[in-house]
Design goal:
The complex is a heterodimer of chains A (550) and B (336). Chain A has 550 residues and is an alpha+beta fold. Chain A is built from 18 helices and 25 strands. Chain B contains twelve helices and two strands. The two termini of chain B are 23 Å apart. The longest helix of chain B is centred in the last third of the chain and has 39 residues. In chain B, helix 5 packs antiparallel against helix 10 and helix 10 packs parallel to helix 11. The chains are: A alpha+beta (550), B mainly alpha (336).
Chain lengths: 550, 336
């Protein structure tokens, strides 16, 4: 098709240009006359497209809320009782204020008035009780799971009046309030909760109270959200409480990472999720916005199986701690957007303390520790003891794209001081099947895990209270168990923080946990036209406060 | 229609039903004995923090604690009534999931098929009538070239050139006309290769026949000779090849759909395989078996009607076969 310019089309074009100039002038003049509108520099309207690599598996709120993919959508469709920002700071949201008793076993939540779910039902005390109950217990016979991270110490919740909820625990649960800001704790309409699993799995039939509602969706394809015009209860900490600015957000699944980035570069989409870290530098130079928010949680590192030889030897574990050059990992595999680990929890977690000295690269110290432990170098430079080689098998985390590259680098670093390192890379299913914390053949389990409150840390480390027993210690380490119990029963953070500091020192000194780097699991590349997004404590981007310019 | 034909048709129909049932049972057994249990795998993810007791209850709710034969029987009896149950992964009805993705795949597969036929016919025509100096010999190399370039490479190249450089389509709207067009090309190219090869072989055979020489002697034009005399006898084996390329279309659509960001049966299979979603896999494989068997059945039933030379061989196996066994490109031809 060839377009030819006829006199008629030119005149029409001129007319169009002239009209739009006049219209633009008129609009500018009007804008000048209405200071109320121009005072709020943010403009309403606009649609954005967010390219994502998966949309997870199910939309049953309880079962899906832990998935890193669906968290993006839930964050816009639902609200939470508490807001937790990127620094772990807790502030009011649907719960305007709260009180707790001295031993943190009873909490009273006071709810904001006038909040409704998108199906019209009120978000009142009864609705909150219904949510707390299903978070704790699920409906297992129907395939609706409990939320795993919800405190197992939960006893009951009761509605005192329309806007007051009392929550009772069987044991001190200092982490309860921050947990309400976790991405699993999403408030869903009681009408939705009452539905059977197959109905709950249909996202368009799920009602939350968030600034956006689901307009349409197709499994494995896209989810389109449109704004709720009567929304007026955003978290004050986000700096805005009224309706969102953008008209719609479309989450579109594009499997291929290079296509996601190329689509943003060519202006076909506004945000690309999970690009490869190596691309970030050139994208930044080309004027695109890149974001690598850290989440609150554990750093990326190795939990050591202390039952397995030779890792039952303190000196070997300490040698491992000193033999890893963490700076080199960031320089080689990542970009300066990644930060050195300073503890075994991320440095933005409230209560995290700096233990860089324990994590310093010191190959000389590592060699000496191994010498002392009786591991001597053979002719090939590999350390042996009683005819056995000093070996370590690393199972690369299939959920983290860079895991294998880091394992290879660690293999080189350890190789220099006589360690023989094997790397096993399994797919997700096989990994889940074969690799477990403290598994009989697993010397080191790679951890990446988010949490909101450092209080949950202690119970995970041992097997008490259904804990995950990361180091295969059970209750055998008296000092660890004592710290765990004191942290769990601490009624205030003044009491808890020094204990947390002791715990971090102890775990790192004992070589129970070998940090690699602080974790950035969510990476965003964004068009410069899109501005004002906010990242919460678990590194999800919220576009509730965002605007887009043409 | 004669008695022998009806007997032949009835036997083929029974065979078809048996094949579908066997495919169903086979899929069930294969997926069930695969290492790894999808449900416990998800539940045992330490981040979920479920106790063993909770995991047991959830598995019992899905009926997965039953003996494998009981599970097979439940599943098979539901299948016979057209009920595929709920997806393990998403808890949504399997029929809904398939109904959502089927139209997109049908559009892609049929347009890819049209592309493949057009491309194959063009290449075949060229190998017969393009002058040698304009690359007639080169054209004969095209089918093997098409087969050897991976599907996804073609797809990614098309996306980068026509999607991003020329802006003809948007990756985020994969069901638009142009996006579908280029996806159909990416999928159609490898499929055209097989059709083209059979077509070329048969054209070579037919154009060497006396009648072709006579027609040429009468001064018939190239295109008329091709379209009116050579194409029909040469196309007959292509009917068989078409039935066989169906599997290729299904497999190829998996890759093409992934590359082009289309949601279809292929991407549903991919997601279900990676999560071992047994009910969905079961339904899709059964559906594919039904389509595959049906198309082959139709080909077998139509074949004797199209070509009077095809005789129905009596004996233990009823298969169509040409009396003149010289048509080398007929894979289903059986020497009596």
């Amino acid at each position: 098709m060839t377009a030819r310019f006829s006199p008629r089309s030119i005149s029409r074009r001129r007319l169009l240009v002239a009209t739009s100039v006049v219209a633009a002038l008129a609009l500018t003049a009007m804008a000048g006359l209405s200071p109320a509108r121009s005072a709020d520099a943010r403009q309403n309207g606009g649609n954005i497209t967010f390219l994502i690599d998966s949309l997870g598996s199910t939309w049953i709120p309880n079962n899906s809320a832990i998935s890193s993919f669906q968290g993006h959508i839930w964050g816009h469709v639902t609200d939470k009782l508490i807001y937790v920002d990127a620094d772990g700071k807790v502030s009011p949201w649907i719960a305007e204020r709260w009180e707790q008793n001295d031993d943190a076993t009873q909490f009273t939540l006071h709810l904001k008035k006038g909040v409704t779910f998108s199906d019209g039902s009120p978000l009142d005390a009864a609705a909150v009780v219904a949510n707390l109950d299903i978070w704790y217990a699920g409906r297992k016979s129907e395939g609706i799971n409990p939320i795993g991270l919800f405190p197992k110490t939960y006893d009951r919740a009761e509605a005192i009046d329309a806007t007051t909820v009392k929550v009772v625990f069987k044991a001190p649960t200092l982490g309860f309030i921050p947990t309400l800001g976790y991405h699993g704790s999403i408030l869903i309409s009681p009408k939705t909760i009452a539905q059977p699993a197959a109905q709950q799995a249909d996202l368009s039939k799920t009602s939350g109270s968030g600034p956006y509602v689901v307009d349409s969706w197709k499994e494995g394809d896209f989810v389109k959200l449109v704004k709720r015009k009567d929304y007026n209860w955003g978290p004050a900490a986000a700096g805005h409480t009224g309706p969102a600015f953008l008209d719609s957000i479309t989450y579109k699944l594009v499997n291929e990472p290079s296509l996601r980035v190329a689509a943003v570069q060519s202006g076909q989409a506004d945000v690309a999720y999970s690009p490869s870290p190596q691309e970030l530098k050139s994208l930044k130079e080309a004027g695109f916005i890149t974001a690598t928010p850290r989440y609150l949680g554990f750093v990326n590192g190795l939990a050591i199986n202390t039952k397995l030889e030779p890792y039952n030897d303190l000196k070997v574990r300490q040698a491992l701690q000193a033999a890893i050059n963490r700076k080199e990992i960031i320089d080689t595999v990542y970009t300066p957007d990644w930060k050195l680990a300073t503890s075994f929890i991320q440095s933005n977690v409230p209560g995290a303390t700096d233990h860089s000295d324990l994590l310093a690269y010191n190959p000389g110290k590592a060699e000496k520790l191994l010498d002392d432990a009786g591991w001597t170098k053979d002719s090939k430079g590999i350390r042996t003891k009683d005819g056995k080689q000093l070996s370590l098998t690393l199972y690369s985390n299939p959920y983290l794209a860079t895991a294998k590259a880091i394992d290879e680098l660690i293999a080189q670093q350890l190789g220099k001081i006589g360690w023989k390192v094997f790397i096993r890379a399994y797919d997700v299913v096989t990994f889940g099947e074969k690799v477990r914390f403290g598994g009989p053949a697993v010397p080191a389990y790679e951890v990446t895990r988010s949490f909101i409150d450092a209080g949950t840390v202690a119970s995970i480390l041992t097997d008490a209270n259904n804990g995950e027993n990361w180091f295969n210690l059970g209750d055998s380490d008296k000092k660890l168990s004592e710290l765990r119990d004191k942290i769990a029963s601490a009624g205030s953070s003044q009491i808890r923080d020094p204990l947390l500091d002791q715990l971090q020192t102890y775990v790192l000194e004992q070589g129970y946990f070998i940090p690699r780097t602080q974790i950035v699991q969510r990476i965003y590349v964004q068009s410069p036209k899109l501005k004002g997004e906010v990242y919460n404590g678990v590194a999800y981007a919220s576009y509730y406060t965002a605007t887009i310019s043409e | 229609m004669s008695g022998p034909y009806l007997r032949y048709a009835a036997k083929r129909l029974v065979q078809a039903v048996v094949v579908i049932l066997l495919a169903y049972v086979f899929t069930f057994v294969v997926v069930s004995i695969l290492p790894g249990d999808p449900i416990t795998n998800v539940l045992r993810d330490p981040q979920n923090g479920f106790s063993e007791d909770e995991i047991r209850q959830i598995i019992a709710a899905q009926g997965l604690d039953q003996p494998i034969l009981v599970q097979l029987w439940t599943s098979l009896s539901h299948f016979l009534t057209g009920d595929f149950g709920l997806s393990m992964r998403s808890s949504r009805p399997v029929t809904t999931l398939i109904a959502e993705v089927l139209p997109s795949t049908l559009v892609l597969a049929s347009s890819a098929f049209a592309v493949a036929l057009l491309l194959a016919a063009t290449i075949a025509y060229g190998t017969q009538f393009l002058p040698k100096r304009f690359g007639q010999g080169l054209l004969r190399g095209f089918p093997s070239l098409f087969l050897s370039v991976p599907n996804f490479v073609i797809g990614l190249m098309l996306i980068h050139v026509f999607g991003f450089q020329l802006g003809l389509f948007r990756v985020i709207a994969p069901n638009s006309f142009w996006a579908t067009f280029f996806a159909a090309i990416a999928l159609g190219i490898p499929i055209s290769a097989q059709i083209a090869e059979v077509l070329i072989a048969n054209l070579d055979h037919e154009s060497a026949q006396d009648y072709a020489a006579v027609a040429r002697g009468r001064g018939l034009g190239q295109f008329r000779l091709f379209a009116m005399h050579l194409l029909k006898p040469s196309s007959l084996p292509v009917v068989t090849i078409i039935a066989l390329t169906l599997g290729e279309l299904l497999g190829g659509s998996l890759i093409t759909e992934t590359v082009f960001g289309r949601t279809g049966v292929g991407s549903l299979v991919q997601r279900s395989v990676s999560t071992q979603d047994l009910p969905v896999l079961q339904a899709v494989v059964s559906l594919a078996a039904v389509v595959f068997v049906l198309v082959n059945l139709i080909a077998d039933l139509v074949y004797p009607l199209l070509d009077p030379r095809v005789k129905l061989v009596s004996g233990p196996k009823y298969r169509p076969t040409t009396a003149d066994d010289s048509s080398a490109g007929t894979p289903q031809a059986v020497t009596p």
